Amino acid sequence: xxxxxxxxxxxxxxxxxxxxxxxxxxxxxxxxxxxxxxxxxxxxxxxxxxxxxxxxxxxxxxxxxxxxxxxxxxxxxxxxxxxxxxxxxxxxxxxxxxxxxxxxxxxxxxxxxxxxxxxxxxxxxxxxxxxxxxxxxxxxxxxxxxxxxxxxxxxxxxxxxxxxxxxxxxxxxxxxxxxxxxxxxxxxxxxxxxxxxxxxxxxxxxxxxxxxxxxxxxxxxxxxxxxxxxxxxxxxxxxxxxxxxxxxxxxxxxxxxxxxxxxxxxxxxxxxxxxxxxx
Amino acid sequence: xxxxxxxxxxxxxxxxxxxxxxxxxxxxxxxxxxxxxxxxxxxxxxxxxxxxxxxxxxxxxxxxxxxxxxxxxxxxxxxxxxxxxxxxxxxxxxxxxxxxxxxxxxxxxxxxxxxxxxxxxxxxxxxxxxxxxxxxxxxxxxxxxxxxxxxxxxxxxxxxxxxxxxxxxxxxxxxxxxxxxxxxxxxxxxxxxxxxxxxxxxxxxxxxxxxxxxxxxxxxxxxxxxxxxxxxxxxxxxxxxxxxxxxxxxxxxxxxxxxxxxxxxxxxxxxxxxxxxxxxxxxxxxxxxxxxxxxxxxxxxxxxxxxxxxxxxxxxxxxxxxxxxxxxxxxxxxxxxxxxxxxxxxxxxxxxxxxxxxxxxxxxxxxxxxxxxxxxxxxxxxxxxxxxxxxxxxxxxxxxxxxxxxxxxxxxxxxxxxxxxxxxxxxxxxxxxxxxxxxxxxxxxxxxxxx
Lengths: 279, 451
Fold this sequence. Notes:
The complex is a heterodimer.
Chain A: H1 2-26, H2 40-45, H3 59-71, H4 84-115, H5 117-130, H6 139-146, H7 149-174, H8 178-186, H9 191-229, H10 234-243, H11 247-275
Chain B: H1 24-32, H2 36-52, H3 56-66, H4 68-78, H5 81-89, E1 98-103, H6 110-114, H7 120-123, E2 127-132, H8 136-144, E3 150-154, H9 157-163, E4 172-177, E5 180-181, E6 183-188, E7 204-207, H10 213-224, E8 234-237, H11 243-248, E9 254-258, H12 261-267, E10 271-276, E11 287-292, H13 293-298, H14 300-318, H15 323-330, H16 340-348, E12 350-352, E13 358-360, E14 365-366, H17 373-385, H18 395-402, H19 405-414, E15 427-429, E16 432-434, H20 439-444
Parallel strand pairs in B: 1-2, 1-3, 7-8, 7-9
Antiparallel strand pairs in B: 3-11, 4-11, 5-14, 6-9, 6-10, 12-13, 15-16
Helix pairs in contact in B: 1-2, 2-5, 3-4, 14-19, 15-16, 17-18
């Protein structure tokens, strides 16, 4: 077991090095282009000779961006230029709030729907229609009605994370083993006790799977939403650097989005293990 | 900048060099416009000294006799300069001090942005946050939501918003024009040999917003060359910051966009400058400083203070020798987030055109704040020409309601800026004269139109 882990790590490292090496080779500076004939003044105005973003950045430049932003993650140069940690904090706060509100709605509602086959059928058409709507499609409507861009961002997170949780909760609750419910009925357990002591623990792993999917989607969506609305957050950071066509910084931000997304997923993975009952 | 100290026995305080101002100090303010606070206290001291010594010769005699510092000590013990200064500053208390102002990261917004790092807002007692915004539609929505107290807007936007075209009606005023000229038609480098607009059939162009000078000027330009902007070319709305990326990706053949994104396309070797907007209409407005009408009504003193801050910045931006400094303060990530050399080329007018030449056009971008009514009438005429508004248009009524020309003139006088006497003026767009008295006849004179 251990040797497999070790081997996997070595292969991962090799893949990474191979990737960086290929990247480096692909972005080696080419012979300076075409401007040889033009005069020196023109070349200076075009930023020749100075450091300048030309084409896809080599790994070294991206590495410098990493060092620069990670060395001072909390700087604050005014409302439109903040450190990476502050931007991530804003994004996580939005995701956290939207997600939390979605949990408050989706879990109880899913519970009710799951316990009653009638309601499950009644709600089904709405869920099926609303579920596939891209969360960003809600944005113009949200901005218009909620009249606040920050609240709209949170709403978009809410609306995109509610469906997987709702469906999984309902499914988890509906598919609790009949034996357990029958035992509870034989023992004349009251309905509230039955819900919390029998159904909830049995459905918990499925509910958490729903939450995990929701969180993944929420993190995907927040970046796009912030690129659209701007102001603060990691999505705004990407957008701002895109304006400046500063690709090293964009690549840095993309990596950070990936790392944070992975951490969020790991947290929910752990929670899932905690509530899973092994027979 | 030399401040004429009333405590200096060698200066006179009766008249100024140029003779247009009551005193040398006021002349200095008019010339500089920048360090308003220091100058204000100077004006005050001068006034007091003049009251004490009606004859200037006596003042000079007195000062030479006792020395300036002794005189200052003696007089300020009698007269509370500090309090007077505070009173002079406090032109009515501010109703609202914390303001949020939106902007799009383009050089058009220079005055309202630079007023922040240069402290012009603070000098007026305002605590302003300038917030970078992703696009014009969002600016419109955030102003309507009252997230922004005032905002950088395209010159036609307040007209469209006030009339309820393309949004719910909400009366917006134009306090000042933010900038004049400073736009260009940029084409993809692959079109270097297609300089004649007649060869542009099927091109995909971008403009920042439907209700923008860019849209109207691009339509005007291609229509003058016989192309129908609705049929022969495609015009898309793309937020300015995304234009270069789209040009590079080949989504666009070109755009009539705001700087720095024209120059940025050159800098990144994806585009070249086909024509500057200045060559279409020299002195055309582009962006404006828009304020909701009810904000103006509810916060008259705050609005006046904001006005002075913006105009002070505009006065500074108009001076060519300040342009390199502007490039410096505007380039950080908090504001425009662009390489300094790109901004310098835009603001100083000495630029690479993307075709291998260096051009020198000092008035490529300017920042004349005066909101001519005739500008608004032209904008309305184009809105009607292209079918954005229909039926009879009361051009002058709308222009005079939306553009705050009288206020602008008053506030400009307050900070010593010269303002034109007229409310309307005739001007030429691509060599064709526009008569503000006959906008409907003007529209009828075009071959390509949607009326």
